[in-house]
Structures are given as structure tokens and as C-alpha cells.
Design goal:
single chain; two-stranded antiparallel sheet; 9-stranded mixed sheet; 11 strands; about 30% helix; about 375 residues; 2 domains; alpha/beta; Rossmann fold; 10 helices
Length: about 375
């Protein structure tokens, strides 16, 4: 399909791409494990090509795909076998699936220069991909298998872009975990001394409260990991492989309500609106997991879905961009990602806009200009 943008910009062609992957063939109904949309700059040869993937969010129609294609680049909005199904996520298999997309860009689309676009949670995932493509062994995820990484043929990308990103799945979950939960089976259980929504605790929040709160968040993450490992032992003794469980109340970062913590231009609230309502609702990070997917993606102690160790192995040119009105990824995240990168050529840039650049008007076009200009200077 060819789409001609308003304002005389270059037409963009979109093509569905569906591919098999190591360890994952087509489903019985015909679906491919990996699929997405290739956005190309009309009949022109692409200057370079982006690939964007998330742990579970569908990136096929990513909001920067069209704008970057209009500026002369290819863009593969790429989904792994875990799109919409993060409860069963395995890092090794996801990395193998990204490798299939990178090879398609070079072998089929014919674009040699590949740019990894790590947006939101995708930054740590794309960092893990590049790290393993550069020779890092399969991720040591403890009791979670490494998936299909050993059979994958990974090719390193040429450039790396981090956009409105956090430091990794275990890190963002832990910073949002409600440490006042006293009973993991009861979503209403509360320790008042650790309840950020209790008026007696804030906002604003005292340093002493924040120190206790952050420590208790880490302790909760470790308790769930301890339970998951013990439960795997119990299940294994009975001949069972895994089970599903829920993690309640994962919208409880004090930064949602106290703008003096990690200051930026954001408004009070979270991506889901009112943090307290979101926190007691059914939707959230890690809300449904298996024991093994918890270890692979969410555990501070076991997961390899943490950006900084992988970013340290990346030496290719890198751009880190953070929107100042983002309500879930913060200036400290951008600074940490920039510092962790092993690249000699690395740039940290802040821009106006919310997490998805839906506001202010023109934010997405401005971001496309910024990223396109940075890439053009390096290809």
C-alpha cells in the first residue's frame, strides 16, 4: 500500500512482513511468529533502516514509522512471538526474533545500515539484542531457559537510538511496585506505614519515607523471586513445568504524585491517569506472569532484561532522547542510559513532549527531524 502524506511529503509504501524464527514456525491457523510492517520511502532507496520492537506491545504501526519513511528511511515496525503475550516472555527467543527482522532488512529490503530504535521498554530489549549480536553469551536467566538464541544468526546493527526509555523491565517494575502489599494473594492488603496514597505520608514525601519505600520495593521484588523459585521446585517435584500467577498493585511510584522527585515538566499522574485508581485496577506491568517469565523479565536478581549491562557492550554511535513531560520515564533514566553506553560517539538530548509525543502539536515531526538528522550525519 502506498500512502501520500499531506503537505507534499514523499509517499510511503507499507508492506506486511511475516517470518518464521528459530524454534518457532507458523501456527496452525497460518500466522507467523514474527510479523510487522515495512515502511519504505516510496520508490526511493532508503538511506538507512530503523527496526523497532517491544517486549509485548505491537510496534508494527509505530508513530515514527511514517515520519521517518517520509524523510527517506526504511522502518520495520517489528513484533516478536510475544506481541500481546508478555506473560510468557523469554528473552532468548525474543532476541532471536529480532535477529530475523534485522536479517530481512539487509537481505530482502536491501538496506545495509540498520538503526536499532529502542522506544520505551524497547530500549533495554534492543540493547540486549545488540549485546548478544556482538558476542555476549545467552542470557543467564536462572531457571528460565534461554529460548532459541543458540540457533539464531544475529547481525549487529550500526546505530542505536534510545527514545523515552527506562532502565529495564525489572527496574521500571520495581520503581512502580507498591511495597505496602502485605499479602500477594490479596490486592487490598496494605501496610499503612508504606502506603504512598495515605495523606499522612505525602506528597510531598520525606527523604526518610522514600528511603524506606524504595528499599521495601526491592524487597518485594526479591520475595516474589524467592517464591517463584520455590514454586518451580514444588511443581517440578510433581512433574509440572510452570504456572500462571498475578502481581497486584504496580502503579505506585512516588514520582507520579511528587513532581519534586526527579523533576521535569510532567504533570501529576501516570500513563493510566490517576495513579491510585490505576494501582487498584487490573491492568499493569507484570500483572499476569508465569514463574519462568517472571525470572526472565521482571526479577531484579535473575532477569537479563536490564539495560545497563548490555549498553556497556555497545560501542556503535548512540543517541538518547528524553521528553520532558513523560510521566513514566524520567530524566534520571535518560542520564543513566547515556552514562551506561560504551559508545565513544553518544549524544543526550531532551525535547518537549509526553511519552508518546502526542503533545504538543508537532512533537512527532520534530522528533523525526531530530533522529533523521542525527542518523544522516553518520551514514
Amino acid at each position: 500500500m502506498t500512502v501520500t502524506p499531506e503537505g507534499g511529503a514523499s509517499p510511503v509504501t507499507t508492506t506486511f512482513v511475516g517470518l518464521e524464527s528459530p524454534g518457532a514456525g507458523r501456527a496452525g491457523a497460518g500466522g507467523h511468529p514474527c510479523q510487522g510492517l515495512w515502511h519504505a520511502p516510496g520508490a526511493r532507496v532508503a538511506k538507512a533502516a530503523f527496526v523497532a520492537t517491544h517486549y509485548e506491545v505491537d510496534f508494527a504501526e509505530h508513530y515514527l514509522a511514517g515520519p521517518l519513511a517520509e524523510r527517506g528511511f526504511g522502518f520495520l515496525g517489528w513484533n516478536t512471538r510475544y506481541r500481546g503475550n508478555g506473560a510468557y516472555f523469554n528473552l532468548g527467543s525474543a532476541v532471536a526474533d529480532i535477529g530475523v527482522g534485522v536479517r530481512w532488512i539487509r537481505r530482502v529490503a536491501g538496506v545495509d545500515t540498520v538503526v536499532l530504535l529502542g522506544n520505551s521498554g524497547g530500549a533495554s530489549l534492543m540493547g540486549a539484542y545488540q549485546s548478544h549480536a556482538l558476542g555476549q553469551p545467552a542470557p543467564p536467566t536462572g531457571r528460565s531457559p534461554t529460548g532459541d538464541l543458540a540457533a539464531a544468526d544475529l547481525e549487529a546493527a550500526d546505530l542505536f537510538v534510545s527514545l523515552n526509555a527506562h532502565r529495564g523491565r525489572p527496574d521500571v517494575l520495581t520503581s512502580w511496585l507498591d511495597p505496602s502489599v502485605t499479602d500477594e494473594s490479596d490486592p487490598l492488603s496494605v501496610d499503612p506505614a508504606l502506603d504512598m496514597f495515605a495523606a499522612t505520608n505525602g506528597p510531598p514525601y520525606e527523604e526518610e519515607f522514600l528511603a524506606r519505600y524504595r528499599g521495601a520495593q526491592e524487597e518485594r521484588n526479591h520475595r516474589i523471586t524467592d517464591w517463584a523459585e520455590a514454586e518451580l521446585d514444588r511443581l517440578g517435584a510433581a512433574g509440572a513445568y510452570d504456572r500462571v500467577f498475578n502481581v497486584h498493585r504496580t502503579w505506585a511510584d512516588p514520582r507520579f504524585l511528587d513532581l519534586a522527585i526527579d523533576p521535569s515538566d510532567r504533570r501529576v499522574g501516570c500513563y493510566f491517569g490517576d495513579p491510585r485508581a490505576a494501582n487498584y485496577g487490573p491492568f499493569g506491568l507484570a500483572s499476569t506472569c508465569t514463574l519462568r517469565s517472571w525470572l526472565s523479565m521482571w526479577s531484579l536478581r535473575r532477569s537479563s532484561c536490564r539495560a545497563e549491562p548490555h549498553l556497556a557492550r555497545i560501542t556503535q554511535p548512540a543517541l538518547v532522547v528524553q521528553s520532558t513531560q513523560d510521566q513514566g520515564c524520567y530524566p534520571s533514566d535518560a542520564r543513566a542510559i547515556h552514562a551506561a553506553l560504551g559508545s565513544a560517539d553518544k549524544t543526550l538530548q531532551t525535547v518537549a513532549g509526553d511519552h508518546y509525543l502526542a503533545s504538543p502539536a508537532g512533537a512527532r515531526a520534530a522528533m523525526a527531524d531530530l533522529i533523521a538528522g542525527w542518523v544522516e550525519d553518520r551514514v
